[in-house]
Amino acid sequence: MPYTHFLYKRWNIALPIWSLVSPLIGLGILSVAGSIDNPFFSLLMAASLISIVLSAVHHAEVVAHKVGEPYGTLILALAITVIEVSLIVSLMLSEGAEGSTLARDTVFAAIMILLTGIIGLCLLLGGYRYKEQVFIKQGTNAALTTLTAISILTLVLPNFTTTTPGPVYSNSQLIFVAIISLVLYGGFVSVQTGRHRDYFLPEDEAAVHSDPPGNLTTTISMLFLLISLALVVLLSKKLSPVIENMVVSMGAPKSLVGIIIAAVILLPEGVAAIRAARRNRLQTSLNLALGSALASIGLTIPAVAIVTVLAGFSVTLGIDTKSTLLLILSLFTISISFNAGRTNILQGIVLLVILATYLFTTVVP
């Protein structure tokens, strides 16, 4: 009997070896990243990043299974947002004034990827396998109502304020928007986990699919989840210059960098949401996607506001007219799609077409 298997059996640890090894390999790659500079090593870092993301997804699912819904999806959403906030803030501090649009581009990209990409794929794959999938309308409507308000106030309203020229908030406006973002997100979380928790529970939540993991397994998963998330932030920061150079060499707008960063950050969320949809647990998928979109704005904007005020440089939050139209179209389409309480494959196709339009018009404006 292999020694590792003996330890797993003795201590009742139910975790695959790869989920523990991947972050350790990533840590080793990160330790030598500063001394090696060639394209092959960048590819190795990218491959390690993907494996660490998958490891993070697995450990997040273990923790989620232990604590139950909707706390499990909330933990993963908050974990992903911590990655996003850390990466955006670190890049803003390193780039200074040149990174004034990074927060806007990344947050907007995250919202579009979550609303049209991840939810679109969930509806497409779930509809293909099960024809129709059901969810609880009250929870989804609560999330969409909050998301509509917070996204318009943070990404569209700056285009119409006049205290400071351009699509930017003044310091007082930025602080106010940061506060209301926290209020809206905090209100949503309190509804999701307290007063109306049943709005966000899958219909088969009472059914026991498997025994929850033991305390030791959960503790190890929580530790490796934190390690994995930290490594994703650090490796993404190491890869960001490579991504920027690639975008510049393509002649594409710099906003494409925000899309790529957001896509990397949201990989764990996307994989977890799609897995849930393929298991006919669409409610879990929607909790992940909509909860992450809310966390992406509700926590990122206050963090960016603090950094901006303390560092003394401006941040551009207002999106352009084309992006505003795509944002409103996405919110409107999802609101109609979720109005009946049932989804089908066509709704997924429509959302993915909107995503394709967003990506294409970013590269070819």
TrEMBL record:
InterPro entries: Alkaline_pH_Ca-Antiporter, NaCa_Exmemb, NCX_ion-bd_dom_sf. It is a multi-pass membrane protein. Residues 43-193, 221-362 form the Sodium/calcium exchanger membrane region domain. It is found in: Membrane. Keywords: Membrane, Transmembrane, Transmembrane helix. Its main location: membrane. The chain crosses the membrane at residues 12-34, 40-59, 71-94, 106-130, 142-161, 173-193, 214-235, 255-274, 286-313, 319-338, 345-364. It holds the Pfam family Na_Ca_ex. The keyword Transmembrane applies. PANTHER family: SODIUM-POTASSIUM/PROTON ANTIPORTER CHAA (PTHR37958), SODIUM-POTASSIUM_PROTON ANTIPORTER CHAA (PTHR37958:SF1). This is Ionic transporter y4hA.
